[in-house]
Amino acid sequence: MEANLNEKRYIFFNYKELICCFLIAAYSSNFMNIGHYIPILFLPFILYYVFKNRFSSVFYITSFVLMSFSIIYTTLLFFYNFSTLSALLARLIFPISLYILGDMLVKNDYQYKKTLRYLFLIIVSSTMYGFLSLIKTITVYGNMKSAIASEGRVVMNLWGG
Predict the structure, then answer these.
(1) Using an 8 Å Cβ cutoff, are 30 and 159 in contact?
(2) Cβ(93)–Cβ(85) under 8 Å?
(3) Of the candidates 46, 57, 30, which has an alpha carbon nearest to the alpha carbon of residue 94?
(4) Tell me: the pLDDT tens digits for 36-71?
(5) 27: buried, middle or exposed (CB in 10 Å: 19+, 13-18, 0-12)?
(6) Is residue 103 within 8 Å of residue 59, measured between CB atoms?
(7) By the 8 A CB rule, do 154 and 27 touch?
(8) Are 150 and 23 in contact (CB under 8 A)?
(9) What is the CA radius of gyration of the chain?
(10) For the whole model, what pTM was predicted?
(11) What does the alpha-carbon distance between residue 91 and residue 114 come to, in Å, rounded to a whole number?
(12) CA distance 72 to 77
């Protein structure tokens, strides 16, 4: 009976979680330079989740602090002309939406299995993006000293652009 249960656990596969993992990895690695727009795909699900569920006071306080910081930060960027309008909108909306997405993804994860899986995914995809970008820079310039001499302290974007 135990072997039968282990086989069922091993075969079971959640396609929603796989799609979500792919989108999170694409966001973390700025896939094809459109990774920063991926949280927009999550907005309908986040809005549905917010209107459907009840939250604790800690969640509301954290959300308020996060939104306050996002508003102040975006306002300062706007008045000092440090960013484009689309980047300002992203910096205003994405922190709270990604916070709610994180709450939605790991809800009822008392053994932290899903949390650790998502955390590991973000770490690995971000690290691979940085490492492969560094390899691309070394491939183009020959070594990092040449890259620093010609461009300054930069690493080329893996996806170009």
Answers:
(1) yes
(2) no
(3) 46
(4) 889 999 999 999 999 999 999 999 999 999 999 999
(5) buried
(6) yes
(7) no
(8) no
(9) 20
(10) 0.80
(11) 26
(12) 9
For residue 54, what is the DSSP state? -
Residue type, 20: C
User: Which amino acid would we find at residue 60?
Assistant: Y
Tokens 């975006």 belong to which residue? Answer: 74
**Single-letter amino acid, residue 160:** G
Per-residue pLDDT tens digits for 139-159 = 999 988 888 888 777 888 898
Sign of the Cα torsion 26, 29, 33, 35 reads positive
Handedness of CA 146, 149, 150, 154 (dihedral sign): positive
Amino acid at 141: Y
DSSP characters for 94-150? Answer: HHHHHHHHHHHHTTT-TT-HHHHHHHHHHHHHHHHHHHHHHHHHHHHHSSHHHHHHH
